[in-house]
Amino acid sequence: MSGQDNSTDAIRTRIKPTLDRFAVKALKAWLKVILLPGAADTRATITELVVKHIAEGKLAEGALETALIGFEEASDMRVYLFRMVDAPKFPPVQWLLDRLNALNIPLSDVRVFAGQRSKPMSPIYAHLEGGFLRVKWAEEHRSVKLDDATDKPVYMSFYKRIVLNVDFHAQIAELRLNPPENRHSHYDGGRPTADAYYKAYLDKAKELLNCSLQPIELRPIIKRLIEEEDPRVVRLHIENHTNQRDLKLTSKSSRADVRDDPEWKAGYQGNGESWAWDSPSFYWQPKVSSGFLARELFSRIDVDEGFIKVNADCSDGEVEYVVTQIRAREAKPSEISGLA
Amino acid sequence: MSLPKFEHVKRNHPKLADWLDQLNVYICTQLSSGAAFLLPKLAAAKLGLTDGEAFILLELLAREGILHRVYNVRCRETDTLLATVDSIDALDDIPHCDDCDSDHPSSDLRVEIAFKPVGDGLMRAA
Asked: Using CA atoms, how far apart are residues A202 and A82, in angstroms rounded to an integer?
């Protein structure tokens, strides 16, 4: 930027407060994906590496900010995936602008950080580009715990981000939410509940898009991921399923793939066809990611609750990769679904 | 099972006749091996369908009075089955969770749709 002090000290002063909010491992993986790798395993060294890339003109501060906003919008999220039903076809521009206006969501050319918003469902921005819409809300939650030493409650504030991604061309939508704390403004039966929090944002998304949102079926996707062997897209970390006797079984593997265990393999070969997969954890493999991942990336698919949980520190690109891989394995609706 | 009611469902939905026959075999196998109820997710896994598709097939049999829709109430923390109830109204009276040693509020419970045979016609056919 013209007139801006581009000494390393000035760059460090500008970027450090924001950079410090994100995990070193996640930043390192992101730099590797954008082909700016470097040896940096501590907070100090990753900061110096980013400062160096900016000072040398390899990384623009604007690009860094966009990436960090992406971290805010991707980290520690429960991701719900939907198909839009009876949605308006693209281009939805005037109709959509009216809806955004009615819901007090400011349309912005750029994505921005949420900051510390205390009010529930505070709209941050809506960003419309082509047939893609991204909307961000934020709100404050509090966690209350009893202090063992004083027997007094200790309150801590947490700022939650909620992001809606819509692809009007493909008629699909994705809602990302940080998990709630135990004190917030979404009540059910006289107390704040996680379900009430998720439902409030799902209802808001439906209201904005003026359509039904049909959750995608996650169980067939898990089955496909587990069956894929050559190459393995994921390392199966925790596997759990219900069998035909309604018996729930869990297998965990700290470093290896559960599928390599001879006992598991024997059970799977005998009866795996009829197992109903419940909430396995995976590590997505960078080697088969065509450069989208620079590290093994954790995610858990919870079928009963209908979401995908991703790591506490992820880049937007990492979560987009996971979502794309899951969507690519969706089952096609059959003639049976037409009866619903 | 070749109950008149079942044949009636097939006649009403001829495109689904093959799926209904497969479901029929599945239901008979499950009941004869002692299953108390049928879960859409397990029927789906066995038949290679999605949960939603298996639910639709089971629901067709429920509408004909062959099966009866029930609700399995599970502890969200431990996944223990606490009760099987006939209606949503009965969800207010869920027993103590022994695993957690707690009377859970509704937000700590998970409700799962299941199906039970109506009468013993299916059991005899199985």
From this structure: 10
